[in-house]
Write a structure and sequence with these properties.
This protein has one domain. Helices cover 20% and strands 23% of the residues. The chain contains 2 helices and 4 strands, in the order H-E-E-E-E-H. It has a 4-stranded antiparallel β-sheet with strand order 2-1-4-3.
Length: 115
């Protein structure tokens, strides 16, 4: 009373047919309304161009390894932090908030518009 399943073709050629030619990393889901990210949480750019807001006294920004600029990532950190040491790896990183740049740009734009 069971079902018969034929043996799967596990040859490399057969497996390659099911894998897309260009692999794309999945996009992170958008956090529900009213949810803020905690310190250290990833805050990548979403499909709609926005970022999930970080909790109070935190900002979303980019950390860049001082020795290797290719080693960078977006996450929430305290707004007053500009540099820190990643203790597990013993490497130094600089941190820059994205929101601060936006606020500065908006402030400058307001000044120029009012002139």
């Amino acid at each position: 009373m069971g079902y018969y399943c034929p043996k799967a073709d596990t040859s490399p050629e057969a497996l390659k047919r099911n894998i897309p030619k260009e692999r794309v990393a999945p996009m992170p889901p958008k956090a529900p309304e009213g949810v803020a990210l905690l310190a250290g949480a990833d805050c990548p750019l979403l499909k709609d161009g926005s970022r999930t807001p970080c909790a109070e006294n935190l900002c979303c920004g980019k950390s860049v390894n001082k020795d290797d600029a290719r080693d960078n990532f977006d996450h929430c950190k305290e707004t007053k932090v500009t540099a820190y040491e990643y203790l597990e790896a013993g490497e130094l990183y600089t941190f820059t908030c994205y929101e601060d740049g936006t606020r500065l740009f908006m402030t400058l734009a307001t000044v120029f518009v009012s002139i």
